[in-house]
Amino acid sequence: MTSLTSARGFNTDSFSQLLQLSTEPEWMKERRKKAWELFNSIPMPTRSDEEWRRTDLRKLDLAAPVPFPQTQAAAAPTAKSTKTLAAALTITDGAVTQQWLNDTYAGQGVVVTDMKTALNQYPNLVERYFMTQAVTADDSKFAALHGAFWNNGVFIYIPKNISVSETISVQITMKNAELALLEHSLVLLENGAAANVVVEITGSGAAQQSFSSRVNELILGANTHLNFATLQHLGLNVFDFYTTRGILQNDAQLIMNTIEMGAQLSKGRIEAMLRGNGSHAQLYGLYLEAENQHFDRFTLQDHSGQSTSSNLLFKGILSDTARSVYSGFIRVHPGAKRSQAYQQNRNILLNNTARADSIPNLEISESDILGCSHGATVGKVDPEELFYLMCRGLSRTEATQLLMEGFAEEIIAAIPLESAQAVVRGAVIERVAQTTAKFAETPVAG
């Protein structure tokens, strides 16, 4: 049974109560304290800050959320095993409700557990990597808040030369809208390891404002392969802030897929740090926006190793008065010879009142590169393609759904879990149906 602390809001009283209730190691308490000091010292972002110029936080209420549960649920039952998964973990309102790991992988030293358990059972690994290399507490105002109040998440460790071919499935659920979601994912791959990870974040459709601040840290050793996907499907009154950052060593290969479907306001950073020679990152993103949703994301392809490459493809489908802001940055450091990078952002507006802003940037500080470029498009559904399908008996809604499925399929297909792919395809179909039901059909020119 989970009960909530009487303290409400992110303030000195709630933070003091968190420390009093904590049974964590002293070093983690000290990190929380430093993060809390940073949070209080970093000004709240405003629209005068370049990164936040297009996102308004005036409606955000940090005094309303319950920061953490006072007591946790009893030990979680073991999930049913399945041949299609390597492991399954479910966390509801910060408490583990189901977990399972394939016996073969467990015998090889693979670890898939929640962060609180990892803190007790694998303290050396957590102390070494938790917000020390990928995402540090001084990264932003909300990273500092996360570092002070994080309340659980997933810890994945793949030992040297172990390849986990089946997918590791993680479900994070915000059932109680009052309780803040402060989920932390820490994925560690030793040299030569490989894994596929899907983290699905869902929430209730409560009327009151809810809060989420998430961090995903991906540490890839030499010659590793990681396919990491997040699906965010929170309620439409959630303010969601997140950072996903991967650190790549020599010849590491990372696929990072960010799917956004829910939340009232979402502000994220998605970054690949290509530090090792020969490393490669493929960044995918898909955002589905309707009503008055506002999504703002920044991506970084950061090349410091030699012979590195990165490719980015982000797509958006928007309707109603939704707004998307995409800002992408390719950075090539001095000495990052033979780097190659490409960045593409494509947006489709299903009606005239939706809006998408795309802001690509390049910073090249090395002359010996293979090429760096970017592209961006914002437009409506192709009327000729729509007309062609409707002439073959499809309704306007069916034709638009088919076109949007095709538009999104390249990104959906990269998610390494069929059930998650089905969820996203269903969301695409639903969004198109909702939009076409709201707006009267207009003649389509041939």
Describe the structure.
By secondary structure, this protein is an alpha/beta fold. The protein folds into two domains: 274 residues, no CATH class; 65 residues, no CATH class. 22% of the residues lie in helices and 40% in strands. The chain contains nine helices and 21 strands. Strands 4-3-7-9-11-13-15-17-19-21 form a ten-stranded mixed β-sheet. Strand 3 and strand 4 form a beta hairpin. Helix 4 packs across helix 5. It is globular. It starts with a strand and ends in an 8-residue tail after the last helix. The C terminus is likely disordered.
Question: Uncertain spans, ≥5 residues at pLDDT below 50?
Answer: 441-446
Strand order of the largest sheet: 4-3-7-9-11-13-15-17-19-21
Count of individual beta strands: 21
| Average predicted confidence as pLDDT | 93
- Domains, number: 2
Describe the oligomeric state of these chains in a short phrase: single chain
The major β-sheet equals: 10 strands, mixed
Strand content: 35-45%
How large, in whole angstroms, is the Cα Rg?
22 Å
Helix content: 10-25%
Rough shape? globular
Question: Could you state the order of secondary-structure elements as H and E?
Answer: EHHEEEHEHHHEEEEEEEEEEEEEEEEHHH
